[in-house]
Automatic annotation (TrEMBL):
<feature type="region of interest" description="Disordered">
    <location>
        <begin position="193"/>
        <end position="229"/>
    </location>
</feature>
<dbReference type="InterPro" id="IPR036864">
    <property type="entry name" value="Zn2-C6_fun-type_DNA-bd_sf"/>
</dbReference>
<dbReference type="Pfam" id="PF00172">
    <property type="entry name" value="Zn_clus"/>
</dbReference>
<feature type="compositionally biased region" description="Low complexity">
    <location>
        <begin position="95"/>
        <end position="115"/>
    </location>
</feature>
<dbReference type="GO" id="GO:0005634">
    <property type="term" value="C:nucleus"/>
</dbReference>
<dbReference type="InterPro" id="IPR001138">
    <property type="entry name" value="Zn2Cys6_DnaBD"/>
</dbReference>
<feature type="compositionally biased region" description="Pro residues">
    <location>
        <begin position="1"/>
        <end position="12"/>
    </location>
</feature>
<dbReference type="GO" id="GO:0008270">
    <property type="term" value="F:zinc ion binding"/>
</dbReference>
<feature type="region of interest" description="Disordered">
    <location>
        <begin position="71"/>
        <end position="153"/>
    </location>
</feature>
<feature type="domain" description="Zn(2)-C6 fungal-type">
    <location>
        <begin position="42"/>
        <end position="72"/>
    </location>
</feature>
<dbReference type="GO" id="GO:0000981">
    <property type="term" value="F:DNA-binding transcription factor activity, RNA polymerase II-specific"/>
</dbReference>
<dbReference type="Pfam" id="PF11951">
    <property type="entry name" value="Fungal_trans_2"/>
</dbReference>
<feature type="region of interest" description="Disordered">
    <location>
        <begin position="1"/>
        <end position="39"/>
    </location>
</feature>
<keyword id="KW-0539">Nucleus</keyword>
<protein>
    <recommendedName>
        <fullName>Zn(2)-C6 fungal-type domain-containing protein</fullName>
    </recommendedName>
</protein>
<dbReference type="InterPro" id="IPR021858">
    <property type="entry name" value="Fun_TF"/>
</dbReference>
Length: 671
């Protein structure tokens, strides 16, 4: 066999051969070898065949493969290991020549055990980060931004991650599969239109998780590469056997959530937010918008982003506190987790204050989203201490020119993501509804959807959905066109309670409304005549519309019309609300129905009260595996209702939910 060498490729542009340079005369002569000697210490058979022997006793690999008798000379000393080299040599990525028949022993290392095995069809070289177009899956993906603190982990290159879409709507599993460890537990059926802007679920192009141990980190003198290794049965055991001391699990979210506790909490948020935030658990634009903002900036590089990151951890902590407390296994653990949630809220507020002191922070969606997420912490903890934070959110909107100016920018977003104008619209919708329910509890007029400021809500309906899609139906379980009418009811009741009855804008055919009762009558008729849009809507949205229309009628009749609690119209609305809410609870779709139940239950008598208690317990129902839908706001709602019942039974003059909340100092934000 003739020796095989890897010569350098010919240089382009040369049209003739160049004679080799003469050998320098001052080079010391090299030691001459016997002409065909390949191994001085190998077996006698390989010496006779003039091939290299690997010196394996009692039978070398050459003789074994050739089915020859392997004979050894007597008294042959064991082969000494080659002395270690003083200088480090870059890793040789060329094919191994250990099997070649023309390379001398001194030019071939004695073993290749520390070199990762290469796939037979050649290694796939991935640049850092890998190209975003490398996709092998049928579902939508989004890349993971490069890690911010690369100085912490020099041996781990920045990876590009992908994330699964949302799971199909089933009563058994509604988790958001965006975490590396969670892939095996999610159903394979998924919705086609799902948000992929949560870059937590990292995969290699071969659909193997980054932390599965099959993508090692390597360094080279020229560049850093990641090699995808074939995962056949003959490769993986060898890989783990020879390189187990080099393999370290890589968590793609570690640069953004550095501690184990933080990574556990953010996974809990992404796992449960679909169940505890979305009234229609079809898709989760809230989590998609928030997580994409967190991964958009390096850790602690932007105050607004850091405020949002800490607020998301606070939401997860308070929900875990509720779960642990309801389980009863560890009351101390529940208290500890609640303290952690309050610590996250406090720290998030500090970062938000720092963000609001800069021009960039005021204009940032991350700052507005952080304020809204802090409000969600307040809701889940029972609805307390929400005023100051919600005023910060309103101030941020005002600083950006108001809702109309924010939506007029019309920043396009990629399909399947919640960015640009679509994200701004989502945040404005959430803030408007938070403001409306907060105003209902306090007896104040809404400011985001108050009279004269609802044009942006109606005009935005004309926007192209590809630029700014509305998410009111899925997030809150009611039609978008119903929200302004509910805001008018809240404003009218606030004016009536304060003795400042204002006249609403009426059609030309209507003369005027000079007193609160006339305004109440007009709004009551509007509620009776209101009809949802013609397009097909989910059953939960249709049911939610009926629930909130009847709740608004009760508020008008009781707070403005001053009718008695046992009025037949009031009781008919109460029966409708409780029946529909129970239907939603049976289908595990009870998110954002606390206020209708409070309003209806405050007028319940007899057997209806037992139905209300069952309803509250159903609101805490475990929808999936160890996942409770509700949180502490359900306990606050039940506390208000029980106190109202006590006052009704005692003929107390303030036997209504509004007086009860005022007397108990329960100025709470509940949905």
């Amino acid at each position: 066999m003739t020796p095989t060498y890897f010569a350098p490729p010919p240089q382009p542009g040369h049209m003739h051969l160049v004679a080799p340079l003469p050998r320098p005369t001052n080079v010391p002569p090299q030691r001459k070898r016997p002409k065909y000697t390949r191994s001085k210490t190998g077996c006698l058979t390989c010496r006779a065949k003039k091939i290299k022997c690997d010196e394996t006793k009692p039978s070398c690999l050459r003789c074994t493969h050739g089915q020859r008798e392997c004979t050894w000379p007597e008294g042959l000393p064991a082969r000494k290991k080659a002395p270690p080299k003083k200088q480090s040599v870059p890793i040789d990525n060329r094919p191994s020549t250990a099997e070649s028949s023309g390379v001398s022993e001194s030019s071939t290392p004695p073993t290749r055990n520390n070199t990762p095995p290469k796939p037979e069809n050649g290694a796939m070289e991935l640049s850092l980060p890998p190209p975003a177009s490398t996709r092998r899956h049928s579902e939508p993906y989004l890349t993971l931004p490069p890690a911010a603190d690369t100085h912490r982990r020099q041996s781990i290159p920045s990876l590009q991650a992908t994330t699964h879409g949302y799971p199909a709507h089933s009563l058994q599993s509604h988790a958001l599969p965006v975490i590396p460890e969670m892939t095996s537990s999610y159903p394979s059926q998924r919705y086609n239109s799902a948000y992929s802007s949560t870059p937590l679920h990292a995969h290699s192009p071969g659909h193997h998780s980054v932390d599965s141990g099959h993508i090692p980190s390597r360094s080279s003198s020229s560049n850093n590469t990641i090699r995808r290794v074939e995962h056949g049965p003959h490769h993986a055991p060898q890989w783990v056997h020879h390189n187990s001391h080099l393999i370290h699990p890589v968590d793609p979210i570690e640069p953004y959530f550095q501690t184990v506790q933080e990574r556990h909490l953010i996974r809990h948020y992404c796992d449960t937010s679909l169940n505890i935030i979305m009234a229609v658990p079809f898709e989760n634009p809230v989590a998609a918008a928030n997580v994409s903002l967190v991964f958009n900036r390096p850790l602690r590089s932007d105050p607004a982003t850091e405020a949002l990151r800490l607020a998301l951890l606070g939401v997860a902590a308070v929900h875990q506190s509720f779960q642990i407390g309801r389980g009863g296994s560890s009351p101390e653990g529940s208290v500890s987790m609640m303290n952690l949630a309050q610590a996250y809220r406090l720290e998030s507020t500090r970062w938000l204050t720092a963000a609001c002191s800069t021009a960039d922070g005021v204009q940032s969606d991350a700052a507005l989203s952080a304020s809204i997420t802090i409000a969600l912490i307040d809701i889940f903890t029972g609805g307390h201490r929400w005023h100051k934070n919600l005023n910060v959110a309103k101030g941020l909107v005002k600083s950006r020119g108001g809702p109309s100016a924010m939506l007029a920018r019309r920043v396009a977003c990629r399909p399947g993501t919640v960015t640009g104008t679509s994200r701004a619209k989502l945040l404005l919708e959430i803030l408007a509804i938070y403001d409306m329910f907060g105003s209902l509890a306090t007896g104040r007029e809404p400011t985001i959807l108050g009279n004269g400021s609802v044009d942006w809500w109606s005009v935005s309906l004309l926007h192209d959905d590809t630029v700014a899609k509305s998410h009111v139906e899925n997030v809150f379980g009611m039609s978008r066109t119903l929200v302004p009418l509910l805001a008018q009811v809240v404003a009218s009741v606030a004016r009536a309670l304060s003795g400042r009855a204002h006249v609403v804008e009426l059609p030309d055919s209507v003369t005027s409304a000079a007193d609160p009762s006339s305004e109440c009558t007009l709004l009551y008729n509007d509620l009776d005549n209101w009809a949802p849009p013609a397009e097909d809507i989910p059953a939960r949205v249709r049911t939610g519309n009926m629930i909130y229309v009847n709740a608004a009628k009760i508020v008008l009749l009781r707070d403005v019309g001053q009718v008695s609690p046992d009025d037949h119209i009031v009781q008919r609305c109460v029966e409708t609300i409780l029946t529909l809410c129970l239907r939603c609870a049976e289908n595990k779709l009870s998110v954002d129905l606390n206020w209708p139940v409070i309003i209806a239950a405050s007028h319940a008598f007899g057997e209806s009260r037992r139905q209300v208690l069952d309803l509250f317990e159903a609101f805490r129902y475990v929808r999936g595996a160890d996942t409770m839908v509700g949180c502490y706001e359900i306990d606050t709602s039940e506390q208000i209702v029980l106190e109202v019942w006590k006052r009704l039974d005692q003929n107390h003059p303030g036997a209504d939910w509004r007086s009860t909340m005022r007397d108990l100092n329960l100025d709470v934000l509940i949905l």
